[in-house]
Amino acid sequence: MALVREGKKAVLLIVDVQVGVMREAWHAPEVIANIAQAVEQARAGGMPVIWVQHSDDELVYDTPDWRWVPQLSPADDEVQIHKHFNSSFEQTSLENTLADLGATHIVLAGAATNWCIRATAYGALDRGYDLTLLKDAHTTEIMELGNGVIIEAANIIRELNVAMTWLSYPGRVNSTAAVAEFDFAAGGNVV
Predict the structure, then answer these.
(1) Model pLDDT for residues 28-71, shown as the tens digit of each residue
(2) Which of 69, 112, 135, 189 is the Cys-Cys partner for 161 at CB 3.0 to 4.6 Å?
(3) What strands lie across the sheet with 10-15, from one edge to the other?
(4) Cα torsion 178, 184, 187, 190: sign
């Protein structure tokens, strides 16, 4: 069983909202605007914001596609973490950063829903964190599986929102909320 974390300190975790990731993402302008609103509200409410940025052979470090979308940028005092795997926890400093902040609750937004958001969400729950997935602040692309099989991005997003609503972990709380419903100043209450 995972360590269950005591306390109610929340952080906003923004994952992979990078030019190359968002270029073909479903409803990218709206999702980016929702993420920007979440960042603004978290900052105003005193909730720490952590930025996770991916690089690999396809999303090459320090290229134009690797950079944050122009509408978003970390503040000088906000932590930036670089990763090479889907989960923001794997071989990164995220767990140490969360421990230093005393964080027990992760509020999650970003891309891509079916890869890095899903892996990070399950990684957080497996490590004993409470989790809120901002249901209107994550996105992905359409998946073309071949032989005419297509999974629409909206269905991928909907499925993860449903999963994060109904999963059950001992001693942990997981949920979804729209950005406008979430009270960042109260550390995670839904209004």
Answers:
(1) 999 999 999 999 999 999 999 999 999 999 999 999 999 999 99
(2) 135
(3) 79-83, 49-54, 10-15, 105-111, 130-139, 174-177
(4) negative
Cα(first)–Cα(last) distance of the chain, in Å? 32
Q: What residue segments make up the domains of the chain, in order of their start?
A: 10-185
**Encoded tokens for 97:** 């950063």
What distance lies between CA 5 and its chain's CA centroid? 19
Superfamily the domain 10-185 falls into:
Isochorismatase-like (3.40.50.850)
Q: Quote the pTM value.
A: 0.96
Show the tokens assigned to 166. Answer: 């109904």
Between the CA of residue 15 and those of 7, 32, 83, 150, what are the distances in Å? 24, 12, 10, 25
Check: CB of residue 25 under 8 Å from CB of residue 143: no
109-160 confidence digits (pLDDT tens): 999 999 999 999 999 999 999 999 999 999 999 999 989 999 999 999 999 9
